[in-house]
Amino acid sequence: MISIDPRKLDLLRAWLFLPGAELEAMLMAAASGADVLVQELEDFTPPDRRPQARALSMRVFEAWRQAGATVAVRINPLAEGGEADLRAVMQARPEIVMMSKVAHPQDMVALDALVTALEREHSLPPGQTLLVPNIESALGVVNAIPIAQASQRIRAMLVATEDTVADLGADRTREGTELLYPRARFLMECTAAGVTAIDCPYTFKDADGAEHDMRLSCAMGYKAKAVVHTPHVAITNTCLTPQQEAVQLARRYVSAFENARAQGKERAEVEGMLVEVPSYFSAKRLLSRAEALADRGLAARAAHRLSQEEVNHA
Known about the structure:
14% strand, 8-stranded parallel β-barrel, 2 domains, 12 helices, alpha/beta
């Protein structure tokens, strides 16, 4: 199992949400390439199927762990079935618990207390379960910083698509202009709070629209993205992984700037671009991300090979 470093949640690029009662779909998702697999017990699972979905968590989470994915579950608000969700799935040891429709810090204080009690009940290491609030309303967005500060378990937050649009009374479009401000403000709030911002999913099925939306997400500064259609995982991972051309350019920026500083100059010029302190540090961050993602990919593949060997020898 790949353990999560809470400081590096932005290395988890595609967060794939899956219908919580669809066993075959969830098991097949282990090969999707998503960094995080989420058993969705809210909108994707009708209320009458939630008991069935909860009973699948043990088998599904173990399969996901063997595939090297990070295991997550999204529960309903505590007073709307979320407590029953969590009590049923906690013994399956999700690494991340997401909760829908979070609008107040008190929502996460209550969830933290319940998770703490259930970790103790199931003899799990205290504090190992991370929490990711799902922000789905205007009130949630403007309360993002106090929500992020409500629990030490919170190292990332997600902004939603459809519920946010509905709360705003806006029209849902493929272009997504109605979401530009909520997405930008949410990213700003998360950055100020020191947590990873997970962008809302592109909920249409077309690949061209998904790629356009993903490139917009990257341009805004997001490093993680919710996904609700499995074919969009590859698009997401590609856009959120520094490409070779960008890596090479970043290396030229770093080299030129460091050489300029060694000569007593304040800046360097690379291909018509003035490389100053901000662009130098931006290039360093890109190189660090590329290296960390490469290392994480190697670790995940190694873990998957080990798990397959254990299965073969069983």
